[in-house]
Amino acid sequence: MESAIGVLVSKFKTYASSDGSSDTLSRDEFTRLLKSELPNFFKDSGEPAAIEHLMSSLDKNNDGELSFLEFWQLVGHLANKHGGFSQ
Ligand SMILES: [Ca+2]
Ligand SMILES: [Ca+2]
To answer: Which range marks the domain in which residue 74 is found?
Structure first.
């Protein structure tokens, strides 16, 4: 489990650091991450409106960027669904 967390953090940093704000994901960075890393878990990554909706639901402080903790909600949600757990 510790290694899985390490992978998530390092992947997040890889995508988040492609612009000046290396601690947060912009919409473009988030889109690239979804397409490359979660193609099966999030199949609507070719739909800008779906990404926009997902991003705004995760962006709790409405600054147009996803912090790691904001992004982490998606990981939890996808993992919950993947595991077949109830909501
Ligand atoms: Ca960034
Ligand atoms: Ca935010």
So the answer is: 24-87
Gap from CA of 1 to ligand 1 centroid (Å):
26
Is 18 part of any domain? no
Residue 17 CA, ligand 1 centroid: distance in Å: 5
CA of 29 from ligand 1 middle (Å) equals 7
Among all bound ligands, the one having the nearest atom to the CA of 25 is 1
> Digits of tens for pLDDT over the chain (87 positions)?
999 999 999 999 999 999 999 999 999 999 999 999 999 988 887 899 999 999 999 999 999 999 999 999 999 999 999 999 987
Tokens, residue 3: 């290694």
Taking Cα atoms as reference points, which of 22, 25, 84, 14 lies closest to residue 6? 14
> Does residue 16 lie in a domain region?
no
Please check whether residue 53 lies inside any domain of the structure.
yes
* pTM across the whole model: 0.92
